[in-house]
Amino acid sequence: MGRVIVRLATIVKMIGPSRPLFIGVGVAMLMFWIFSPFPNSPKLLDVAKTTILPEKDSAATIDCTTVSDQGFNLGHDPVDETFYDDPTLSYSMGNPMKNWDEKRREWLNHHPSFATGAEDRVFVLTGSQPWPCKNPIGDNLLMRLFKNKVDYCRIHGYDIFYNNVFFHPQMLGLWVKLPGVRATMLAHPEAEWIFWVDADAVFTDMDFKLPLEKYKDHKPRGARVALQGL
């Protein structure tokens, strides 16, 4: 309401005092329309009765608790045992995962909705130190650069995770990327690629796509990592 009145006042100032009657009638009609007592007239400020029709809003037809935006069936949890049921499973460095490709393939067989398109699925991983930047503008720049990465992932349909914790007490600095990548691989077996992007990196070409076909013969499926800035 305040915004509408400010704009009308600006119009009055621009037109001048020569047309006060016209402006007065306009304001009266606007106020009558907003606060009209008739039950069938639309109310500008009455948002409590606003409804979203599923047939007009595709987002309202998706149950996010059972189906993800990528079509994953989140409600399907088979009883078959996978590598997650192994009591020796560890996300930390120093505990090698043996036969990872076979274990990942078995997990995908039990979760067919995740298996579709898995060979080209990319998971973007980035992050920064857990403490604030020394320069006050640093945190603002990190936020803006992260927004750039989120937009890039949104355009290409990639998942993204921002990490600001240490996964290993002895792996700091550049080495902090490795335990983060390992943990991500185990937590997201649906992703064929883990794409690390440094926090201070920026996508200047939002249409750029990783040339994954160039690397298809370099590493067995299920354990591929693209490290940018390492």
How is the secondary structure organized here?
Elements: H1 2-15, H2 20-34, H3 100-110, H4 112-115, E1 122-127, H5 136-156, E2 159-163, H6 177-187, E3 193-197, E4 224-228
Parallel strand pairs: 1-2, 1-3, 3-4
Describe what you observe in this structure:
The protein has a four-stranded parallel beta sheet, with helices on both faces. The chain has 230 residues and is of the alpha/beta class. The protein contains six helices and four strands.
Highlighted features:
230 residues; disordered N terminus; disordered C terminus
**Strand-pairing-aware structural class:** alpha/beta
Mean pLDDT reading? 74
**Portion in helices:** 25-40%
For the secondary structure, the number of strands is 4
Which H/E pattern describes the elements? HHHHEHEHEE
Q: How many helices does DSSP assign?
A: 6
Counting structural domains, the number is: 2
- Please tell me how large the radius of gyration is: 27 Å
Largest sheet: 4 strands, parallel
- The CATH class of the largest domain is identified as Alpha Beta
Predict the CATH topology of the largest domain: Spore Coat Polysaccharide Biosynthesis Protein SpsA, Chain A
Assembly classification: single chain
Strand order of the largest sheet: 2-1-3-4
The CATH architecture of the largest domain is: Alpha-Beta Complex
Unreliably modeled segments = 1-15, 225-230
Percentage of β-strand residues: 5-15%
Ends distance: 54 Å
Shape: extended
Can I get a quick summary?
The protein is an alpha/beta fold. The chain has helices at 2-15, 20-34, 100-110, 112-115, 136-156, 177-187; strands spanning 122-127, 159-163, 193-197, 224-228. Helices cover 33% and strands 9% of the residues.
